[in-house]
Design brief:
heterotrimer; A alpha/beta (208); B alpha/beta (203); C mainly alpha (201); B: 203 residues; five-stranded parallel sheet; 8 helices; 46% helix; C: mainly alpha; two-stranded antiparallel sheet
């Protein structure tokens, strides 16, 4: 056994290093402001069950009936909001949704049993924010099916039915039927191997 | 026995017991809700059906189409070389390997874009990058590519070019279906990602 | 935060700088533990000196527990840390050869270089033989490639293999190490009592 092994200070130094590292570690643990309440698997189930949406008919009933506690949030930007919105809606644009004040407000609404309906210009715009709210634990948040566009259409013509996730066509049939139109089909499909990176916002543009 | 050794041994045992008590390690892969919300407000995740059609026609090897409809729907009709990951099984480990492949651009599509966008949100939360949503879904695909509508005579040259492109794309897609029904399925094989992206190194 | 290079916090060009620093520290610890003396190393076999076992076991459990704490603090992402793939056959055979060389030569690859550094002739001879062995292995690799890559378990950890948490594995290893320290201390005490040719300080 070497003499230096008996140096009592070595033990003290070692202990101090360990303790300092652990204290430093505990101090630097970041606790995130918002935590996910749903696991990704639960989120998948949420989308599969597909009952998160609320139809304009139902929203109308909720808004006119005074017994239900409902808050409507318009997540479009202020300009679009100013041009027209659902009566009684509050405008919080999508980028501001998770600001501290808004989260606080939503927490209060949740405690008081409010139903919060969010909508964008179409359902797609509100879909993401709705999923985020559900994932961080706001189970009282729901999304307006079809968004503002469809809400307006519904106002004009109450018979229209909104079914966003259904197939509008029998794809296979349609794809085959187009062939019979007398198109030039004899040209075989050429398999090119050009490596081409995705161009963002290229010349080809269109909206559905 | 030397007292120092005893003290150090006890320290080590305490630390080891402490390890058993610390809570489960959080998943670093997941991005924070704030970041997720920010990404959602960006519209750069959307690609148009025309862009997708062009990439398929040009045989872009970086394109990875993921069909999130149920298996039965996928089997009756799907886009060229698409992989089927039904939305409800997105989190299954087998399917996870199709995401996050280096240099691949994943494009989700469904009947419309809502379900595809939901798949996108979940994949984004899991920390995957280079993922996109086909705007309008297959409904839009049929309307624009398979049944293109000729623009008015007053329309701009650009719109006519687009119409010409769509006509050509329509011939390409419907044509392949008739000439060789299986031609579409035997294209580029997507290689599954290897587990763990660590640097190589050793002793 | 860590590991630094896979997370692209620093570039891969720092590889060699980091390797130099770690190598220097490793050599320093080997030398200061007395590993440049083949008596200390072969002592494990004869039972009069278990310093090798103690130093390596200590290093292992400190690194193990430390990494898990770092992971808990969010300082390192263990999923990105390289895990050496396990080729069962070659690991078993290589371990056997290494142990044999340990006792016969009195050095392990790292300690032979610390011995070279302090100018020991046996260390120089050992290191030369070691290089020749590496050369022969590399030249003849095609002949035993099949054996080398047989029984590939992949980059697997003990925890994954038995389906237990890494924390539990670390805890068990710490307990094993403490028990090993005590048992080897007892053995050392008994063996040293009967030894006359080698004086212990």
């Amino acid at each position: 056994m070497h003499v230096h092994e008996l140096n009592p200070k070595k033990t003290v130094i070692t202990m101090i290093i360990f303790v300092v590292v652990i204290i430093a570690g505990l101090l630097t643990i970041r606790s995130p402001r918002l935590k996910y309440a749903l696991t990704p698997e639960q989120t998948v189930l949420l989308t599969a069950s597909d009952n998160g949406g609320i139809s304009p008919e139902k929203l109308e009933l909720l808004l006119t009936g005074s017994t239900e506690k409902v808050e409507v949030i318009d997540i479009r930007n202020h300009y679009e909001f100013a041009r027209g919105h659902i009566p009684g809606a509050r405008n919080i644009s999508a980028v501001e949704l998770l600001e501290n004040d808004n989260i606080k407000w939503l927490r209060i609404l949740q405690e008081e049993g409010f139903t919060v309906v969010i909508y964008g210009k179409d359902q797609l715009q509100a879909n993401g924010p709705w999923m985020v709210f559900r994932q961080i634990g706001f189970s009282n948040v729901t999304v307006l099916l079809g968004g503002y566009q469809y809400y307006l259409a519904y106002k004009d013509n109450k018979t229209q039915k909104y079914a966003p996730c259904k197939a509008d066509f029998n794809y296979d049939e349609v794809a085959k039927a187009s062939v019979a139109d007398g198109e030039d089909n004899n040209q075989p499909a050429k398999k090119t191997t050009i490596v081409r990176r995705k161009k963002k916002g290229g010349a080809v543009a269109g909206g559905c | 026995m030397n007292k120092n050794y005893l003290v150090l041994a006890i320290l080590m045992i305490l630390l080891a017991v402490g390890l058993l008590l610390v809570p489960e390690r959080q998943n670093y892969q997941q991005i924070e809700p704030e970041k997720l919300m920010w990404d959602i407000t960006q519209t750069s995740r959307f690609v148009t059906v025309d862009q997708v059609a062009q990439m398929i026609i040009e045989g872009d090897p970086t394109l990875e189409l993921i069909d999130i409809r149920p298996v039965a729907d996928f089997e009756t009709f799907s886009l060229t070389n698409a992989i089927n990951i039904p939305l409800d099984s997105l989190m299954k480990p087998d399917y996870q390997d199709y995401l996050g492949i280096e240099d691949m651009n994943v494009v989700f599509y469904g009947n419309s874009d809502i379900n595809a966008d939901q798949a996108w949100v979940i994949a984004k939360r899991m920390g995957y990058n280079s993922i996109y949503v086909m705007q309008g879904g297959l409904n839009c695909w049929i309307r624009k590519i398979i049944q293109p509508v000729e623009p008015d005579e007053s329309a701009s040259q650009e719109e006519f070019d687009l119409y010409q492109f769509r006509k050509g794309a329509c011939a390409f897609f419907t044509g392949t279906k008739v000439e060789a029904p299986d031609a579409g399925k035997t294209g580029i094989k997507v290689v599954k990602r290897k587990k763990g992206t660590a640097v190589a190194g050793g002793c | 935060m860590g590991p630094l290079i896979p997370q692209e916090i620093i570039t891969g060009q720092w590889d060699f700088v980091i390797a130099l620093l770690i190598g220097g520290a490793f050599g320093f610890i080997l030398e200061s533990s007395g590993f440049s003396s083949s008596r200390n190393i072969a002592g494990v076999f004869y039972g009069y000196n278990f310093v090798v076992l103690r130093v390596f076991f200590t290093a292992m459990i400190v690194a193990m527990v430390g990494l898990l704490y770092f992971s808990y603090f969010g300082w390192i992402d263990l999923d990105l840390v390289f895990v050496l793939p396990t080729y069962l056959n070659s690991m078993l055979f290589g371990g056997f050869l290494m142990g044999l060389g340990f006792v016969i030569g009195g050095f392990c690859p790292g300690t032979s270089y610390t011995a070279v550094a302090i100018g020991k002739i046996d260390g120089i001879v050992f290191a030369t033989g070691f290089l020749i062995g590496v050369f022969i292995f590399a030249e003849g690799f095609p002949f035993y490639e099949g054996f080398y890559t047989a029984n590939d378990l992949g980059s697997i950890t003990i925890g994954e293999m038995f389906g237990v948490s890494n924390e539990l594995v670390a805890f068990l290893f710490v307990m094993m190490a403490i028990v090993a320290f005590y048992v080897t201390w007892l053995i050392e005490k008994r063996v040293r009592k009967n030894m006359t040719e080698y004086k212990f300080e």
